[in-house]
Predict the 3D structure of the following.
Amino acid sequence: MHRLRSTLTMLGIIFGVSSVIAMLAIGEGASRDAQEKIAQLGSNNIIIKTTEPVEEQSAGGQRQTLKEYGLTYADAERFRSGIPDVQVIVPNRRLSQQAQYRTHRVSIEVIGTVPWYPEISQLRLKFGRFLSSTDMHYKQGVCIVDENLVKELFGFDSPLGQHVKVASDYYRVIGIAAEQSSTTASSAFGQKEAQTAKKSGARLGSIYIPLTTVRERFGEMSLQVSAGSGGTLERVELQEVIVKVRDIDQVLGTRQSVQTLLKRFHKKNDYEITVPLELMRQAKEFQRIFTIVLGSIAAISLLVGGIGIMNIMLATVSERTREIGIRRALGAKKRDIVFQFLSETLILTLSGGILGIILGLSVPVLVTHFSQMRTVITPSSLFLAFGISAAVGITFGLYPAYRAANMDPIESLRHE
Amino acid sequence: MQKVDKTVNFETNRPILVMEKLCKNYLLGSVELRVLREIDLTITNGEYIAIMGPSGSGKSTLLNLIGCLDRPTSGDYILGGQSVSLLDDDQLSMIRGTRIGFVFQSFNLIAQLNVVENIEVPMYYQGFTEYESAERARELATMVGLGDRLSHRPAELSGGQQQRVAIARALANDPLIILADEPTGNLDSESGTEILAVLDNLHEQGKTLIAVTHDESIATGAERVIRLLDGRIKKQEYNNR
């Protein structure tokens, strides 16, 4: 066999197989990323967020000086009493603030929440305790600090029992938590993103404070300063309400009830409902389409590779007509000839397959290295790729092999 | 289906090849070309036979039939006590592999295989183990005087040497008949003489040789010369050696 010709022929299979592996790895990585992020939101949760309603500029151009919108404590109470399948309801305040410990200052998000917040989130307590109903009742100045903040804020000091200054008040640290959540800066690439977040002055993490304390100390008013028009005073009670249902089957029905309730009491469209379950379904559907598209591309490239293999094997067979005649005269049966050429094709495609797997394994590594995209190589994709190259070899090798076997021995011996 | 009996072993002077009213016709478009017409031929074990005749006399067709590369249109062909006229392709392959040893005009060695590997080819198809066939191939190569060229490729050998490899290959499965098609046709006279000596030697060892040739020197060396003309045996001459 010609070495150059074989190598060139194998390229089709090499690229086909490696693209199957690389595409599956990238697709799988993206899908797991999406699913993990969604799973962090909680598949039994319905998240209702306050959004600023679109301003209807009245003809008179009369500027509103006080804007009131968003979710209220009354809404949360209505969800609790009006919807049957609700397991827990978590109303949250979220405020951007600066936290200070001695001379260290960082940007943080204050989350005013309730003691049962961990039930609806991925929050894990590393040290200390979470908020208690006593903290709520007495509007204590205590807080739980995000793990990401510890090093920035406290350096080598032990944070438990220390006091952190947020706005004008001090809060005693009672716990350290780690939360894998899309709303905080920590995610799959926590370290890296935390670095960039620090540079750009974005929020590094969260500090959890009792909702009652936040309501008392921060109030519900905030001043939004916009260019040229002075300030607008805003009043928002809650930034989000998370409703958790008992069973995953109740998610969609409860979403309907939530929407109906909100529609009745909110004239403006000042909320947004997110259902992680729906997002998950969408992600799965997207993943399916993605797989089909990638699969077709890979299939086409393997088809092209296979046709290349067949082409080269046909050329080889016609070049070696004489040899086939000799072998037939010396006692080779038709199936011996089929076997000979089929095994040559298989060697060609399987070595192409192995090289393709090696290349296919290195592509996702490079992709991850250069683009920080997550890639996941599943063992099944390797078997799939190898199986495909074997199948291509057999499919496209059979015809040339049969052609070789069915040559007339007398004719082929005469062939020059 | 007839089973091919591999264990035939004939004594000298018993017929090992019998042809009765053997005909071969080819269709050329709508015209039927009668290439061989009622060939009757009996060859006994250990004979050295030259088949001669002008081109178009049916020599090659007869050679193909003897070599089981082709099937007769009618008539019977009995090789080693077994009728082979009606065997299927696989059975014919088996007969070729075990009972016929081919020696071709243009040597027909496989270019990418070395001397030993070329000699091994017929044994490979009969299921020899690699050790057995390599061992036997080396012996045969030594026998034809190529013991020092075992791993040479055909391109590195002279014509005479290549033909010796081909003869060694023909002997690999210890066939009933060595069938040579113009064995000296592509050789200079010196190499040709050498090859004839090798064939004579095989004959002396009791091998049955059938050579199709134009070469009168083979004809003089053979015991019997069969002359073909227009698809018929015109005459048979016996040489006294």
